[in-house]
Request: fold
Amino acid sequence: MKIIAHGIDLVDFGRIEEMLAKHESRFLDRVFTAREQADAESVKNRIEKLAGRFAAKEAVMKLIGTGWRDGVAWTDIETVNNPLGGPEVNISGKVKEIADKKGIEQITLSITHTANFALASAVALQG
Reply:
């Protein structure tokens, strides 16, 4: 397989806390799938989990290169944990259409956290 694109994003936990304080359910439902929301509720540090997932969505958008337009929805990108606990990304809808047109066959994802930040790196693979 060869790397055909890369995206990276850094999210300050304060940004997520602010969005939750201002628009909790509207923000959650617009940005995160039901599974992502449930996963965040099941961990000790909900903000850390949400910030990591938010960064992952931004990183995936950067690698497909279109931005949030033309029918792309935040929930077209879903980050879940594999059986070993590592993050995996599922794409659907318009994001899947764009990825298919660009020849993206797989997206690998890495998420890391500090005390105040979450960073995600997404790599698009082909072949």
Observations:
- The chain has a mean pLDDT of 96.
- Residues 28 and 34 are 9 Å apart (CA to CA).
- The domain at 2-126 is CATH 3.90.470.20 (Ribosomal Protein L22; Chain A).
- The first strand starts at residue 2 and ends at 12.
